[in-house]
Amino acid sequence: MIILVHMWWLSIVFSSMMPPSDTADSVQIISFEEFEQMAGRPSEKLVIYNFWATWCAPCVKEMPAFEKVNGDYPDVDLVFISLDDGRRPERVNSFIERRAIKAPVFLLSDVDFNSWIEKVSKDWSGAIPATLFVQSDGTRFFHEGELDESGLVNLISRLK
To answer: Which CATH class is domain 22-159?
Structure first.
């Protein structure tokens, strides 16, 4: 009994010493219809939806630039949409925790890409990374391919 109380007390002490988490909450799994509703919601901000996957090197490479820009521009909202396997959310959760991703991350469960890619943009070949920008008036702009920080800032400046 004394050992259990001591272990409990130690767990409280050590957990209180841990810094608070600044990362995104656990990934939420959504359908394409839920994504469409999200992307169609009115917003006073420019909303950026970045389509990516943990196994996509260019996607992972551009994420820090997206996170930095998201922190630097309060009038912009960033949402990461993972195209990883929806049956394995723990992989995405682990990734966002290791990388300290702060923006919300959603895992798209609809793997029938051919049924919805053109609904995001007729210009999308299906390659990732890909980014959908939705302006406050609902106008959409789509970019396929990797973006560095300066390219992202230029697009934001043009679209705001």
So the answer is: alpha beta
